[in-house]
TrEMBL record:
It comes from Pseudoponticoccus marisrubri. 2 residues (Tyr-54 and Arg-57) present in a large hydrophobic pocket are probably involved in substrate specificity. They are important for desuccinylation activity, but dispensable for deacetylation activity. GO terms for molecular function: histone deacetylase activity, NAD-dependent; NAD+ binding; protein-malonyllysine demalonylase activity; protein-succinyllysine desuccinylase activity; zinc ion binding. Substrate binds at Y54, R57. NAD-dependent lysine deacetylase and desuccinylase that specifically removes acetyl and succinyl groups on target proteins. Modulates the activities of several proteins which are inactive in their acylated form. This is NAD-dependent protein deacylase.
Length: 233
């Protein structure tokens, strides 16, 4: 079978680019309540507050630079043309800034979505609470991110990748949010080798055949070099 690598990334990959994670000390969910800024009900109740939260995160993401881990993953994708699938939970676009191509299962901050007609458009900076949709004109524009209680994007495509990969890696994710936290089991059931790269042990570390601990900017480039030296790939 042709070797195929599926890589799931989380907020820890962008931590060294200066973007807060969610559950580390001082993380986003220590500063803001999920029910105030990351649910459809919060947006219906107070769109100004939710848009301000995402405007702040969009501005930070726009300022951020890809780090050595993003660049190494882009190099892996380029070298192993078509055999490396990047699935990210992150709503920054640092994989793309590094030259990679990622499936954004939680959406991406650089895009808006019209809650009335489903139209999507590029958002360079701020969104207003009643952002008008450029397609239908309704004042229903929202950040194109998946909120708690909503279905993540691309799940069918992700399932098909998990069922046909020979290696699954999770990088910089705490493994506390499903369905992403269940991907390792799904890949393992299909016979894939599994590896976790993280700063420290997570709730799902025991489910991986191999764990590599350390900051992503150190561990990911070394791991990518080892893959590219490996005759299998
Ligand atoms: N290098 C490697 N791993 C790191 C680093 C680093 N420099 N810094 C932090 N980490 C690890 C932490 O140890 C933790 O396991 O990154 C992980 C961050 O976990 P979370 O903050 O929970 O982020 P994530 O797993 O991406 O959250 C998943 O939850 O709130 C939702 O939609 C949100 O996409 C997010 C999802």
């Amino acid at each position: 079978m042709t070797e195929k690598i599926v890589i799931l990334t989380g907020a820890g990959l962008s931590a060294e680019s200066g973007l807060s994670t969610f559950r580390d000390a001082g993380g986003l969910w220590a500063q803001h309540r999920i029910e105030d800024v990351a649910t459809p009900e919060a947006f219906a109740r107070d769109p100004a507050r939710v848009q301000a939260f995402y405007n702040m995160r969009r501005a930070q993401a726009a300022e951020a630079h890809p780090n050595a881990a993003h660049l190494a993953l882009a190099r892996l994708q380029t070298t192993l043309k078509g055999r490396v699938i990047l699935i990210t939970q992150n709503v920054d676009w640092l994989h793309e800034k590094a030259g990679g191509i990622a499936l954004h299962m939680h959406g991406v901050l650089s895009q808006a979505l019209c809650a009335a007609c489903g139209h999507r458009w590029y958002v360079p900076d701020e969104m207003t609470p009643d952002e008008p949709c450029p397609a239908c004109g309704a004042p229903r524009g929202r950040p194109d991110v998946v909120w708690f209680g909503e279905m993540p994007y691309h799940l069918d495509l992700i399932d098909s990748h998990l069922s046909s990969c020979t290696l699954f890696a999770a990088i910089g994710t705490s493994g506390q949010v499903f369905p992403a936290a269940g991907f390792v089991r799904e890949a393992q059931l299909n016979g894939a080798e599994t590896v976790e790269l993280n700063l420290e042990r997570t709730e799902i570390s025991g489910q991986f055949q191999r764990n590599i601990f350390g900051p992503a900017t150190e561990t990911v480039p070394r791991w990518v070099d080892s893959l590219l030296e490996d005759s299998l790939y």
